[in-house]
Specification:
Blueprint (H helix, E strand, L loop, with lengths): L6 H6 L4 H11 L11 E5 L4 E7 L8 E6 L2 E6 L5 H5 L12 E6 L4 E9 L2 E8 L27
Antiparallel strand pairs: 1-2, 2-7, 3-4, 4-5, 6-7
Length: 154
């Protein structure tokens, strides 16, 4: 992947440094350890989103979801159970290794809920812009007709 240098843009923009750092993070190549577990991001409405993460073999108690500032972190760690020690595994195709997956959230995007269903962890998100940040129309007041007064010659 081609690297992009945003340095010239820093000189002519003010307040966009966070945007450029996010673009730099996205530009880095994912390693195989960052690709586990697989996930989907879908848009479910005008300002609603859903992240679905494949977490087969993990129970609700094995998963941890944390939202802090604009970062959503999903962690999974399978607790060792006594059932695993009883039998001998001949082939293990279902991964049960610990993982941590991070998602950078845009401004005003928050988590509304999470559910575990059929081996998929669904995290619902919604973007709610505060009323103070929404665009508003500013009425233009008319001053009415102006009278021009001229000085009378005396």
């Amino acid at each position: 992947m081609r690297q992009v240098d945003f340095t010239p843009l820093y000189r002519s923009t003010v307040g966009f440094d966070r945007l450029f750092s996010i673009l730099d993070q996205m530009n880095t190549v994912e390693t195989p350890t960052q690709s586990y577990p697989p996930y989907n991001i879908e848009k479910t409405g005008e300002s609603a989103y859903r992240i679905s993460i494949a977490v087969a073999g993990f129970a609700e108690g094995d998963l941890n979801i944390e939202s802090k500032e604009n970062l959503l972190t999903v962690r999974g760690e399978k607790a060792a159970s006594e059932d695993d020690a009883k039998g001998e595994v001949l082939f293990q195709g279902i991964a049960a290794r610990a993982f941590e997956r991070r998602f950078q959230l845009a401004d005003y995007v928050g988590v509304t809920g999470a559910s575990l269903e059929n081996g998929l962890l669904h995290i619902d998100l919604v973007r709610e812009v505060p009323e103070a940040k929404k665009p508003k129309l500013i009425p233009i007041a008319s001053a009415g007709p102006r009278r021009i007064e001229t000085a009378k010659a005396a």
